[in-house]
Design brief:
mainly alpha, disordered N terminus, rod-shaped
C-alpha cells in the first residue's frame, strides 16, 4: 500500500497551493482534448470537482464572449456613441453635397410630396 506525502500531493500546485490561470487553462484544455479526468487530477494534485469547476468557468466565459450584444454599461455606451457618430457622419456628407450643389449653382434635388 502506497502512502502519499504532502509534497507528492501538491506537486502540480503553484505558490501557496494555488495554480496560475495558465496552468488552469492548460488543465481544462487537456480535459477537453480527452485526457482522463482521474489521471489529470492525480497529476495536478487537485480534486475532480476542482477541475470540473475550472472547466465550467472556462466554457461559460467562452460562451459569454460569443454574445452579440455587449453586457456591461461601458460597452453599451460605446456602441451607442458609435451609432450616433455614424449618423452624424452620414448627415455631414449629405450637407457637404448640398453645399457643393449650391456653390455650383445647381438646383437641389426636389423632394416628392407624399400623398
Amino acid at each position: 500500500m502506497r502512502t502519499e506525502t504532502t509534497a507528492s500531493v501538491g506537486v502540480g500546485l503553484g505558490r501557496g497551493g494555488r495554480m496560475s490561470r495558465q496552468r488552469k487553462r492548460d488543465a481544462v484544455l487537456r480535459l477537453l482534448r480527452g485526457e482522463d479526468l482521474e489521471t489529470l487530477t492525480r497529476a495536478l494534485g487537485v480534486t475532480a470537482a476542482t477541475v470540473i469547476g475550472w472547466q465550467d468557468s472556462f466554457l461559460a466565459a467562452g460562451e459569454a464572449s460569443l454574445a452579440t450584444r455587449p453586457s456591461n454599461g461601458e460597452a453599451l455606451e460605446s456602441e451607442r456613441l458609435k451609432a450616433k457618430l455614424g449618423e452624424m457622419l452620414l448627415e455631414r456628407e449629405l450637407l457637404e453635397a448640398k453645399i457643393a450643389a449650391l456653390e455650383a449653382n445647381r438646383p437641389l434635388a426636389r423632394r416628392r410630396l407624399r400623398p
